[in-house]
Amino acid sequence: MSASARSFDLAVVGAGICGLAHALAAARRGKRVVVFDRDAQANGASIRNFGFITITGQQAGACWARAMRSREVWSEVAEAARIPVLQRGLLTVARRPEARRVIEDFLATEMGAECRLVEPAGLADYGAGLRAGRFAGALYSPHEMRVESREAIPQLAAWLAERHGVVFHYQTAVHAAAPPRLETSAGAFEAGAVVVCPGDDFRTLHPERIAAYGLRRCLLHMMRLAPAAFDPALPAVMSDLGMVRYLGYAELPAAAALARRLEAEQAAHLDNGVHLIVVRSADGSLVVGDSHHYAATPPPFAPTRVDDLILDEYAEVFDGPLPPVVERWTGTYASAADRLMLVDRPSDALRIVLITSGTGASTSFAIAEEVIDELYGSAHGVPA
Ligand SMILES: Cc1cc2nc3c(=O)[nH]c(=O)nc-3n(C[C@H](O)[C@H](O)[C@H](O)COP(=O)(O)OP(=O)(O)OC[C@H]3O[C@@H](n4cnc5c(N)ncnc54)[C@H](O)[C@@H]3O)c2cc1C
User: Fold this and answer.
1) Which residue's CA lies nearest to atom 46 of ligand 1?
2) Which of 12, 133, 242, 292 is deepest in the core (most CB within 10 A)?
3) CA gap 13, 150 in Å, rounded
4) How many other β-carbons are positioned within 10 Å of the β-carbon of residue 63?
5) What's the gap in Å between 45 CA and the centre of ligand 1?
6) Which residue out of 12, 18, 335 has the highest number of ligand 1 atoms within 8 Å of its CB and is therefore the one to mutate?
7) How far is the CA of 65 from the centre of ligand 1 (A)?
8) Which stretch of DSSP H or E encloses residue 261?
9) % residues pLDDT > 70 (the chain)
10) Rounded to the nearest whole angstrom, what is the distance from the C-alpha of residue 265 to the centroid of ligand 1?
11) Does any ligand 1 atom lie closer than 6 A to the CB of residue 104?
12) Bridge partners for 191 per DSSP
């Protein structure tokens, strides 16, 4: 390899959505960028998630604003990289009057400006197949987008290489990152700046810096249901359980009464961090999840009772027979008790960026723009 092939303006560690977002933001500034990933292709949270760019429900303030900005970038790159957008919008059904009151509170915030309350009789306008007669209403949001992550992430990387000249070194582990020098399993590289986006690997690069944040991993269960008579017009669907998990709802005054009722009626769901997200794939199959279990090292065992809780909630929301489960998987992401993301600054030219909540698909593009602006100089920096 020539000397110039080993020397870059910016090196990014990690080819998940966080790393790719930083590569994009720097490449758009004309920087020569190299991305390293120890796997043959991204294999972490970024390809295991719903591919659901969630706006409505994100915590009010910075997170919601980052999701709005990231959605804009997703729209641009999806079109440019020919990544299909499979669904748009979100319908959060209220199974209980308490959940409807959370929707009413939400609509009174600035985040609710383009969203609307849907009465049960009006739900058919959004697509067939919901048990609408049992609901107290629903919240419709037009903001969301859904991509098939396992295809979209490799497509995004290929487009970054082709359109922006980003160089990728897969199957290359980075052992040390202290700009201007990186030590990798493929030898030494040089870069003027380094951004480390290691996902839930807290031990390889700068472990003492990451340890200071007291992180754990969060394990999630996911399933794919066989193609079914699922109305392709339906947007993504969530239910009451999501309103006590997503901070954009959970921090509203009416959420306390909903939480009390769910504790009485769905304690097992809450204990396992279960809520419902249902999105549709191109072949008509459904990606359904998820659950949340926290540990330093989550067990590799995935009890079926957790999947059954997710499917119970599916059956409460959708009419008709439950389609067979054709695929099950788990994923993990970094989790912090006190923050949704973190940017650590060991030196002027080094940043460690972790999305410490289940929001990376929805916020990484905006976070990366802020980090790259701060690294290369701009009016606004990163508050976290
Ligand atoms: C099941 C599931 C569902 C989710 N649903 C949603 C959702 O609906 N909406 C949403 O916004 N978010 C969702 N998330 C969260 C989102 O997927 C994550 O926040 C995001 O993918 C994190 O991206 P990342 O790039 O930081 O990490 P990852 O995707 O884990 O990528 C990190 C990469 O770094 C590489 N790496 C680490 N250390 C090194 C090293 N030393 N050398 C070389 N390579 C290294 C790893 O190999 C890996 O490829 C979900 C997550 C899961 C698991």
Assistant:
1) 14
2) 12
3) 19
4) 22
5) 3
6) 18
7) 21
8) helix 255-265
9) 98
10) 33
11) no
12) 8
The residue count of the chain comes to 384
89-145+216-335 CATH, one of 3.30.9.10, 1.50.10.10, 3.30.2310.20, 3.60.140.10: 3.30.9.10
> What does the pLDDT read at residue 2?
86
Taking only the tens place, the pLDDT of each residue in 273-294 is 999 999 999 999 999 999 999 9
Backbone angles phi, psi at 263, to 5 degrees: -60, -35
Domain 4-46+150-213+339-376: give its CATH architecture.
Answer: 3-Layer(bba) Sandwich (3.50)
Return the pLDDT at 294.
97
Which one, of 361, 360, 366, lies nearest residue 382 by Cα?
366
Rounded distance between C-alpha atoms, residue 63 and residue 55, angstroms:
9
Domain with CATH 3.50.50.60 in the chain: 4-46+150-213+339-376
**Spans of the chain below 50 pLDDT:** 379, 383-384
Is any atom of ligand 1 closer than 6 Å to the C-beta of 195? no
8 A C-beta contact, residue 167 and residue 111: no
Mutate to test the pocket of ligand 1, among 17, 49, 195 (most ligand atoms within 8 A of CB): 49
pLDDT in tens, 303-312: 999 999 999 9
- From CA 40, how far away is CA 172, in angstroms rounded? 8
d(CA 135, CA 242): 15
Start-end of CATH 3.30.9.10 domains in the chain? 89-145+216-335
